[in-house]
Write a structure and sequence with these properties.
mainly alpha; about 80% helix; about 210 residues
Length: about 210
């Protein structure tokens, strides 16, 4: 719901940051892997109930997740201006979405372990979140694949065709941060969040079906 507005708002600062780190030793894939490592580290420290550390790692990992695509587009544009003879590789986009799925899933599990152990909350709201993520991911990836094959892609500058709906990346980052800031309310937040993600899953299924008809 907020991704488009946030992407527009952050375009300039992310572009400036990408320009600052655009050096031979820094690659988009390297940033993706660094974000993956820090995201998994955030999940691990959440499981250990080190909430402040987990929050810092989570936010840094998401900044890197935004920078990798910005740097990739910057270099792609430069290559096109220089008359690159072959189309750019899509391996980075594949790595990026795979890393995102790993980090989001690990984060839910890590927070569930830490919060339920420390505050004696139930597990099942976190299982609902993971189930809703699973359905969303299935709808999103299936649509993107079929849309590419049938020429019905949604081009917003990203590697895959995103069906934007109620719960998107921005909301996910905020909710995961809230879990780490308010771990004593983690299972209640998870319950509400699972409903939002479930509604988004239904929206994506319907929108994807109608668009591909």
């Amino acid at each position: 719901m907020l991704d488009r507005a946030l992407r527009s708002f952050l375009a300039r600062p992310l572009g400036a940051a990408a320009a600052a780190i655009d050096r031979p030793g820094v690659t988009p894939d390297g940033l993706t892997i660094a974000g993956l490592v820090l995201g998994v580290a955030s999940a691990t420290t959440a499981a250990l109930q080190l909430w402040a550390v987990a929050l810092a790692l989570w936010l840094i990992s998401r900044v890197l997740d935004g920078l990798d695509g910005t740097l990739a587009r910057r270099r792609r544009g430069r290559a096109q201006l220089q008359g690159a003879p072959s189309p750019p590789s899509e391996a980075g986009g594949f790595l990026d979405i795979t890393a995102d799925f790993v980090v989001y899933g690990a984060s839910v599990v890590g927070i569930a372990i830490g919060a339920t152990a420390q505050f004696d909350g139930p597990w099942w709201p976190f299982l609902l979140v993971l189930f809703a993520y699973y359905v969303n991911g299935t709808a999103f990836l299936a649509f993107s694949s079929i849309a590419e094959r049938t020429g019905r892609t949604i081009d917003d500058g990203r590697s895959l065709s995103f069906l934007g709906r109620l719960a998107e990346g921005t909301e996910t980052i905020v909710v995961h941060a809230l879990w780490l800031i308010l771990p004593f309310w983690a299972w209640q937040i998870a319950l509400v969040w699972s409903a939002f993600v479930a509604v988004s899953a239904v929206q994506r299924i319907v929108a994807g079906y109608l668009r591909l008809r």
